[in-house]
Structures are given as structure tokens and as C-alpha cells.
Amino acid sequence: MLEGKELLEKAKLLSKQSENEIAKGCGYVSPSGRVLRKSFYRALIEAKGYKIGNGQGRVGNRASRGRQTEFKTKVHGNGNLLIGHAYTKKLGLEPGREFKIDLKKESKIINLIPIN
Predict the structure, then answer these.
(1) pLDDT digits (tens, 9 = 90+) for 49-60
(2) Which of 10, 19, 50, 85 is most exposed, with minimal Cβ within 10 Å?
(3) pTM of this prediction?
(4) Distance (Å, rounded) from C-alpha 88 to C-alpha 75?
């Protein structure tokens, strides 16, 4: 995701495109392909030199948490255990990265061991 001067330059180059195409062109797309418009707009405003609150987001007088990393997850009804984008981003993991899953059955610990 582009930021600062690079973001402004790229957005200007793509200015004839739709808003979604500009956001995509600047890298504001989730791994699932969803356009991250709020993040894109926030980055544009900050690139122009404006600070937006404390980054926590507010709706009226009510604080809005949005999506935050909580370092917890749950097993879904289909048996899947999801580790979200926020965590893989924190670790700098790229799509396609492979891991060996090491289970410690007694203590119910799951370790992910990078392959290569």
C-alpha cells in the first residue's frame, strides 16, 4: 500500500479511473480482493498533511473499534481456525508462504513452522 508522496503521485496518474480502480492501483486491496476504501481515503488525507484523530475512529460520540488485532480467534462451525490478515501483516507474511503445522496434542498448542 502506497503512502505519502508516492500515494499522491500514483493517485494523480490514475485520476481518470474509478475510485475503486485508483484504490486498487495504489495497493489498497485485501487478500480476498476487497477494496480497502476507508484505509485508502485515510492514507490520502494523511498524505495531504492532515492528521485524523488518534486513528481509533469515532461515530458521533460513540467510539468505534473497527477491526483490531486482539490475538484471539475461535474454531468456526465448519471446523476451520482462521488467522486473519492483521496477524499475517504484523509478521510480514506474504500470500503463498508455506508452513508446517506442528501439533502438541497434550497441551493443545499449534506451532506454525515456516518452510524454507
Answers:
(1) 888 765 544 444
(2) 50
(3) 0.47
(4) 18
